[in-house]
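Students often ask why we bother encoding 3D structure as a string. The short answer is that it lets us treat folding as translation between two languages. Here is a chain of 440 residues written in the first language.
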Amino acid sequence: MSMRPGFQELTEFSHYLQRLLETRLWAKILLGMILGLALGYFLSPDTGLVSESTSNNASQWLGFPGVLFIKLVQMIMIPLIFSSIITGIASNTDTEKLKKVGLNLVVYFLSTTVIAVVIGITVTQLIKPGQYFEKPQELPAVDASLSSQPGLPTIEELPHVISNLLPSNPLASMVTGEMLSIVLFTIIIGIAISVMSKPNSQPILNLLSSVQEICMTIVRWAMEIAPYAVFGLMAQLIISVGFSSILGLGAFMLTTLIGLLLLLLVYLLLVVIIGRRNPWTFLKKVKDLQLVAFSTASSAAVMPLSMKTAQEELEISPFISKFIIPIGATINMDGTALFQCAATLFISQVYGIELSIANLALIMFTIVAASIGTPSIPGGGIIIMASVLQGTGIPAEGIMMLIGIDRIMGMFRTAVNVTGDITACIIFERFFGVETREKV
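And here it is in the second language, the structure alphabet:
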């Protein structure tokens, strides 16, 4: 199905993100981290340089840019994913090919998520970062919305749970952020539009193209305050937990980074063995994308650049890139799954809770299932963790120990997540590239 000249592909909005590379936003963010660390130490009540009331007031204002940044990205996440999946599917008229690629894609995403979770369990069990962290005598009360997350469904409840994945009220799913339901609804709409006649479908596609441009404009605005957001959030973290606690959390951060590095090596092995590509050339071509993903901490926000990188740098079929990347940005959260796994085990270690093999298997199953619906926004993963903790009997209050560093760790795992999406494109190009190029 060819597009009219007035319709803009998502890749055409990559210039909104290209400017972030030209201005070295990632370097500014790293500088913001360092300066925030220094200011937070100066304002921390532990140092005694300022009063506790002054410290608390400064903490609230320092965190304000971070709140604005997260809200701006959250605001556009669902419209951007909704419009991107639909236009990606609707631009292809071969529904049989969509079904064939889609079924294989589900198996692939589940497989890599399992690998990520296994890496997370292994690394955290070997290093045991929880033993380096001294749990505060009183943790802040956990948010009621976190502790009320549902546990695992029983066998009898599974048919009801599965049927509820298809939303009877799509608008309600968008309001509550039920990502998996939104994705399924959007895929169905996209397929329906793909079989419509061109005169009837073109106005819808043009409208969705305008929605994408609006979303990318807001992303550009959000990125203007990103360095200040990270600066403030880092300072706020040091003020709230103290410098000694952040050193203890450093063991967990290092453990997670080691796990993410191992996951990245798995991707490179897939690129070499299955994709038959040179790993160093691959890393060189996706470097800019990884830096922008690191800066935004949102897989959804970098979709235009992901598609452009896939199609122009790696010569991926447009059929594959336009189908895999929007869906992958929503349900392919390997880095997030690894973080959730490491965080769950870390909290259990801090509380001195011994986990059996059955507990570890339950954690693995829950995280694989939960990561599929994790919102591709800053802070999305930490919310999903509550259901994992509740299902294994680990106090949900432990989440509060990690909320401060979640924004920082989110940048690293997002860079890994988008690398996973590009790796998936390479794998599917290897098997479906030739036969799909003529379908776009």
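Translate back mentally: The chain has one domain: 10-437. Keep this in mind for the problem set.
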